Amino acid sequence: MDERRTDAGCATGAPGTGADGHVQGGRPSLIGEDAEGLARRLAELGVAARERGMRARQLFRWIYARGARSFEIMSDLPKDLRDALAERFELSRPQVLACAQSRDGTRKWLLGYEDGARVELVYIPEPGRGTLCLSSQVGCPLGCRFCRTATMGLWRNLRAGEILGQILFAKDALDDWPADRPGRQVTNLVLMGMGEPLLNYEAVRQALRVALARDGLGLSRRRITVSTAGVVPRIAELGRDLGVRLAVSLHAADDATRDRLVPINRKWNIAALLEACRNYPAGRRITFEYVLLHGVNDRPEDARRLVRLLADLPAKVNLIPFNPWPGSEYRPSSAERVRRFRRLLEAGGLEAPVREPRGRDILAACGQLASAPPRTRAA
Ligand code: SF4
To answer: In the structure, which protein residues have their CB atom closer than 6 angstroms to any atom of ligand 1?
Structure first.
C-alpha cells in the first residue's frame, strides 16, 4: 500500500453540499442550476425580467467556467445583487471526508453529504489528458456480482448539483480554473463510478448539459462517456439528448453467464442490449467493458462468442483485469489467460486493449468503489 493523504485535495473541501435546489446549511445551493434555473432564482430575488437573462448568463459563467465559490468575487454583478444572492443562496462543494493518492498519480476522494450519504470520486491523470470518474448514485441497485459498490445496495440517487459538485470540487483540488485554461487537467469525464447513470437519467442529463455548455465547463461530447450495465430503454435517449460516448458493461458473451454476473440481463438480455447499441447514433464507436474472471468468462469459447456478437458493431473491447476486494468471490484471470483472450479478440478483428489497473493500491480501480459497509436495502 502506498496510500498518502493529499493535503491539497483534503484542504479544499468545505462543509456543505452543492445540489440543485437542495437546502444546505440553511440556504439552497445554486450548483446544478442551468441558465434557465438561475433566471428563475433571480426572479425570486426581484431582478427585472429584462435583466434576468443577462444576469443568469453572467452567474452561469462565474459558477461553471470560473469556479466561483462566493458571490462577492462576481465583479460584473451589481453589489446589491451580490449581497442578495449571498443572503439567499450558496455555492458550496461536497465535504471531503478522506483522500488518497496512488503511486501512479490516481487520486481518490471520499465525499460526504449532509444526510450521511457518501460517494467516491476518482481522478486519473495520463499524458495529455485527465479523466474524472464520477458517481451518479450513492451505492447501486444492480447487484453485479464482481462489483464492490454492489455490496452497498442503493442508498439514493444523486441530484444534478451533487454530480456537478464532484467536478467543481475536483477542479478546485487540482487548481484547474478557469474551465477553458490551456493545459487544463480535467479533460474527460466518465460516469463509471458508483451507480448506474441511466437509472438516474434526469439528473445525469442536467449535469452533463452544464458540463457540455460552451460558457460552462466547456467539455467536448467526445470526451464524455456514460457507462451502462444495460438499461436498454434509456440508451436511445442518451444518444438523442446528449450524443456523448457510450460504454457498456458487458462482462459475458452468453445470457446464462451474464444473468449471473450482471443481473439486469434478466430484464434486458444481450440481444436487446446489442440492438440498442446498433441504433445508437452512427459514427460513434461503443466501448464494451469486460472484466476478466478466472474460469468464469475468460475461456477461448467466450472470446470467440464475443467476436461473433460484436461483428456488426463499431466496437472496442476494454479488457479489465479483475481487481479483487475484501470478500469478493472471484479471482483475476492469469496473465497468460488475459493474453490468450486478447489474442482471440484481435484475431477476430476487435480492438481489445487491456486496461492498465489504476489506483489499485488505494482501492480506486474499477469495481472497487464502496464507501459504506455492505447493505442491501434499496432506497
Ligand atoms: S458494476 Fe456498475 S452497474 Fe454493476 S453494481 Fe457495480 S456500480 Fe452498479
So the answer is: 140, 142-144, 147, 149-150, 194-196, 229, 249
- Series of mean pLDDT values for 10-residue runs along the chain (379 residues): 41 37 68 96 97 98 98 97 97 92 91 90 95 96 92 95 97 96 96 96 98 97 96 96 96 98 98 97 86 97 98 95 89 96 98 82 57 40
Q: What is the mean pLDDT of the chain?
A: 89
> What pLDDT does residue 336 have?
97
The residue contributing the CA closest to ligand 1 atom 6 is: 147
Q: What is the DSSP track for 199-264?
A: GSHHHHHHHHHHHH-TTTT---GGGEEEEES--HHHHHHHHHHT--EEEEE---SSHHHHHHHSGG
356 Cα: distance to centroid of ligand 1 (angstroms): 19
- Please report the atom of ligand 1 found closest to the CA of residue 148: 6
Global confidence as pTM = 0.89
For residue 206, report the distance from its CA to the centre of ligand 1, in Å. 21
CA distance 109 to 359: 12
* Strand-pair partners of 24: 27
Pocket test of ligand 1: the residue of 152, 155, 249, 288 to mutate, having most ligand atoms within 8 Å of its CB, is: 249
Report which ligand 1 atom has the smallest distance to the Cα of 147. 6
User: 28 CA distance to ligand 1 centroid (A)?
Assistant: 31
Which homologous superfamily is 111-362 in?
Answer: Aldolase class I (3.20.20.70)
Pocket test for ligand 1, best of 134, 148, 149 (most atoms within 8 A of CB): 149
The whole-number pLDDT of residue 20 equals 41
What is the C-alpha to C-alpha distance for residues 100 and 279, in angstroms, rounded to an integer? 40
Distance of CA 161 to the CA centre of its chain: 13
- 120 as an active site residue: the answer is yes
Question: Which stretches of the chain are assigned E, i.e. beta strand?
Answer: 23-24, 27-28, 95-101, 107-112, 118-126, 129-133, 137-139, 154-157, 188-191, 224-228, 245-249, 286-292, 315-321
Active-site residue identified among 120, 162, 196, 289:
120
Where does the chain hold its CATH 1.10.150.530 domain(s)? 30-88
CATH 3.20.20.70 positions along the chain are 111-362
Q: Regarding the domain delimited by 30-88, which CATH topology (the fold level of the hierarchy) does it fall under?
A: DNA polymerase; domain 1 (1.10.150)
